[in-house]
Amino acid sequence: MSTHDTAAVDGRETAWLHDPIAVPDAQVEASARKRQSQLTKPPGSLGRLEALAQRLAGLQRRVLPRVDRVQISVFAADHGIADEGVSAFPQAVTAQMIANFAHGGAAISVMAQTLGATLEVIDLGTVVAGPPLPGVRHERIAAGTANFARAPAMTDAQLAQALHRGRAAALRAADAGVELFIGGDMGIANTSSATALACVLLGCAAATLAGPGTGLDAAGVMRKAAVIDAALARHALAPDAPLDALRSVGGFEIAALAASYVACAQRGIAVLVDGFIASAAALAATRLAPGCDAWLFYAHRSAEPGHRVLLEALQAEPLLDLGMRLGEGSGAAVAVPLLRSACALHAQMATFAEAGVADRA
Predict the structure, then answer these.
(1) Is residue 314 within 8 Å of residue 298, measured between CB atoms?
(2) Where in the sequence numbering do the catalytic residues fall?
(3) Domain-located, residue 41
């Protein structure tokens, strides 16, 4: 985190961001690489699956890694920037989708059940407050963020709360012995907040990153970019001040996602990053805590056009490219079987010696 970050958040509230990042075990990774070289296949014939298993081995400090225990934490919140007409859907949808998650009807609900993953939904603040629901943690900060076209999205205290909520989700994962963490997002107009945040951190204009989100037409995307550019000119944010950027143009769920990634890296938990929103949060996380990128895997390339720019900035090669752009952590959930396959092949294939198969001359 830059010393130039001017967000006036109480240092005691964010001091944990400076806690050390867990260091992958290079010796274990080397041992996993040696095992790969002894398996009954030509070297490299399983492509990236080999590297995934080796990297997971180093992160988990065991030659035979596993990703059986998965936690999916979906952070939900509304955004004041929706007042500027940047979304095709009304904000009431956010609370309605929280209920859909709880009742098992959303894509991420189906995927969590399919994977045997733990799913929790954290309501950080919707415009329409919903009733208590099973599987939903009601941790409201406010009824959505402020409209960042006119004022900072959050107060200092609200940013600190959002960061704390994200960290708490990672700590729950650590306490449960989770082997893989997925952060999901839900919030009408959150592609606008994610775009604005990424524009600040990358120093680029909104037209570079703005996309249709929930389904804007070309004119709507142009308007969205213009609203964001005007807001960025108003706030005059510095690229090396990620806390200030989160406070001024971010969302409660985006800040929580970024914090969850940092806290997972501190606790030694691998993270599978979802699409555009999650990657904007990952970019903020890597700026807040350099070194946490070692713990981040990128699940897929979103159809949201700005995601390619984000992935390039993160030097990330996603596992899948399926044209998805739903959010919720759904793209990451779909990629979990790839990681499980990598681990299974690495652990269960016979070596040349075990199978009695001749190795290369």
Answers:
(1) yes
(2) 328
(3) no
